[in-house]
Design a protein that fits this description.
By secondary structure, the protein is mainly alpha-helical. The chain is built from five helices and two strands, in the order αβαααβα. It has one domain: Skp domain (Protein Binding, DinI Protein, Chain A, 2-Layer Sandwich).
Length: 166
Amino acid sequence: MKKILMLSMLVFATSLFASKIAIVDMQRVLTEVKQGKAAMEILKTEAQKKEKEMKSKQDVLISLQKEIETLMSNPAADKEKILQKQKEGQAKLMTYQKEAKKIQDDLSEREQKAAADILRKSQPIILSISKKESFDVILNKAAIIYAPESLDITNEVIRKYDEANK
């Protein structure tokens, strides 16, 4: 049984070495095609805008926290008013955290959709290059520990992607 398994592994390895192989850095494809750059710029601009909005809400929370600390440091302060301000602060903090999470989730989802669209559109381009160059196997560079640069077709994929998606 072991001999059969070792023999089949040897046959597989031999056939793999006889194959014509190429490598594509899909992460580079995502970040370097024009569509990917544009999508990331839009998301970056929107993230900065949302960050400014959240900063003003954070400033309100800081101001409320200082107000609570001032009230608590005053021995004559009304305990009921302190409790009311603390509850208000907790409610505003929870709202702030929910909104921040919603914004982050929305931006992540939009980034994932943009990436999925680019990956979907790149598949026919990679297959076309594969057929043209007679590659038997094309691997994602992320799954490879080492491969010579001569096997890397990423630049060609990026160039053809941009030509096809003007």
